[in-house]
User: Fold these one by one.
Assistant:
Number 1:
Amino acid sequence: MERKKPSRKRNNTIFVTLCVIPALIAYIVFMIIPTFNIFQMSLFKWSGFSAVKQFVGLDNFNILLRDNNFIRAFQNTVLLLVIVTAITMSFALLLATIMSGHQLKGKSIYRFIIYIPNILSIVVIAAIFSAIYDQNHGLLNSILGLFHLDHWKQMWLGDQKIIIYSIAIAMVWQSVGYYMVMYAASMASIPTSLYESAALDGAPPFKQFFEITLPLIWQNVRNTLTFYIISSINLSFVLVKAMTGGGPDGSSEVLLSYMYKQAYTNSSYGYGMAIGVVIFLFSFILSLIVSKITDRDVLQY
C-alpha cells in the first residue's frame, strides 16, 4: 500500500510552529514570569538581600497611598507624558509635512540632522543637556546673557519649579526626529493627485493637512502615539537618573526612578515591586484609554 505524503499545508504548519516556539519560550521566560514575580514580591516586605521574607499582603499599596514622594513622582510622570507627547507628536507632524514638500531642497540632509539625536545614547544626551543647563558656564544662560536677558537666567536643573520642564525639553529633542521620519514615510505614500484636486478646489495647505494628510496617516499616528507614551516612561527614568538623580529634594523623581531608589538603594525591594505593579497597571490602562480615544475608521485611497 502506498504511503501518503505529508501535505504542503502540514509542512508549513510544522515549520511555523518550530519558528514560533523559541520566541514563545523567550517571551514566557523574560516577560511573563518576571511580571508574575513582580506581582508576587509586591505582597512581601523584603530588603532584597535577606533570606527572610515577611508576607504583608496589600500593606505596601496602602503605604503608597500615603507616600507624598510617590505621589509627586506619579504627578511628574503624568506631567511629562502629557507635555512631551503633545509637543513631540506636534513637532514631528509639522516637520514631516515640511520635509514632504516637493519644493524643499536638501530634504535628506535636513532629515538626517533632525534624526541624529535618536541615534545618540541617552546618557550622551543627558550629558549634553546637563552642559547646556549649567548655571555658570552653560550654553543657555550664556545666550541669555549675550542678549542682556540676565533676569531670565535660571538654575535649570536646580530649581524645583522648572526642573521637570528642563527634562521634558531633552526628551522632545531626543524623540522628535524618529517620529518625523515615520510620518514622512507615511505621507510619501499619499498620491499627489489628492492634493492637486484639493488645490484646484481652493483648499489651502492647512485644510489639506487636516482633510487629507492626517486622516490617511492616522493609523500610523495612533500606533506611534501608544508606543511613545509607554516608551516615555522608560526614557524619563534614564534621563532623570543621568541628569538629576531625582533631585533636588526629589522634585524630579518619576515613577521608575522612585521604584529603583526604593528597591535597590533603600533596600525596600517589596515596596519597590509594589510601585512596579502600579507602573504596569498604569501603562496598561493608559494604553487602552489611548487606543479607545484614537480609534476611528481607516480611510483608504
Note: The two ends are 56 Å apart (CA to CA).
Number 2:
Amino acid sequence: MAQAVRFSEFGGPEVLEVREVPTPEPGPGEVLVEVYAAGISPVETAVRAGSNADRWPVEFPSGQGREFAGVVAKAGAGAGRFRRGAEVIGYVARGAQATHVVVPEAQLVPKPISLSWEVAGSLYVAGTTALGAVEGVNLGSGDVVVVTAAAGGIGCLAAQLAKARGAVVIGTTTEERFDFIRQFGIIPVAYGPDLAARVREITGSPVTAFLDFLGGGADEAAALGVAPSRVFTTTDWAAVEDHDAVKLYAGDTLALGRVAQMVADRQVRLPIADVFSLAEIGDAYRQLDQRDSAGKIVIGMKLVDYKGQKVKPARIKQQDVTIGIPTPHDRVAVEDMLPPVIGDGRARRLRTGPIPTVEVPVGAGAPAR
C-alpha cells in the first residue's frame, strides 16, 4: 500500500488528509517512482480553496501537488529511459504528494548528484515558473524589475535569474526577511499600501517589469507605468482579465533540466525554509499561507532523525494563523535545533552509528515568522 494526500471538498488545510491507497501500477510509457520529497506551492492552495474552479477543475477526491523527486521503482511497457533505482526529478498534473506516484517517463529528468532531495523535490514549480517569467519578459541590463514575495521559492529564483541577466531587482517581503533577500542582491521593500510610491523612493530609474508572485499587484504595476505585457502573475486571474497581465505557468521537462543543472552548478540557489513530514501536510500549508517563509517548504517522505537529536523545529500551529497567538514551546539553544533531513536507505542505517555531519539548508532549522 501507498500513502497519498487527498481532499474531498474545497477549503483550507483542514480538508487535507493522508489516506492509504493501493500502490499505483505504471502503464505503457509510464514509470512508478518512490517519492522522497515533494514541494508545495501557493497555486495548490488556490486550487484547493476552489478559486476559479472553472479554470482549475477538481474531481473529488482529489490528490494534490505537482513536483517531486525520488527513485524509480518500476517501469511500464515501453519505458526504458531509467533503470530501477535511478534518482529522478519530475512532475505530474496533480497528486505528487504521495509515497508513490506514476508519471510518464517523458516528465522525468535525472537528478544531479549534488542536489539534495529537499531541493530536487521542490524545484519544478518554482524553478520553471521563474525561468519562464524572466525569459518571457526578456529581462536585461537596462531593466528595473519589481518581484513580489521575493523571499518565496519562485520569487527568490526569479530575482536571482533577473540579477544574472543584469537587471536591478526590487523585492517585496516582510521586514524580517530584508537581510535574507539582500544576500541575493535584491533591494528589499516591505509589503503594504502605496508600493508604487515607496518603490519610486528607492530608484530614480523607471520600473520596466513587474513579476507578481503574491497577487493583487496589477494596480501598483500600472501606477509605476509598467506595460501590461511586462506584468506577469501566477495566481491573479483578475489581473489577467482586467489589466491584460500575462499568466505564468510552470514549464516543461527541458526547462526543469536546465534549472536543475543551474542549481546543481550553484549558479542560483533554492533556499529551503522548512521540511515537514507527510503527516504534517496541513501544518505545511498553514505555514505557506502566511507567505513569509524564506524559500521553499517541502514535504519529506523519508525524514531521518539522528542519534542525539534533542528537538525538532517548533511547528506553527493553526492558532498561530487564525488568531495570531504563537504556540507556546520551551526555549532551546541554537545547537539543539537539528532538523530532520530527507535520506535514503544508507542514511537511515546510520541512525545507530556516529552522528553524521548535516549541511543545514538556508532558512531551515527554525520556524518561519
Note: Confidence is low (pLDDT under 50) at residues 316-321, 334-338, 345-369.
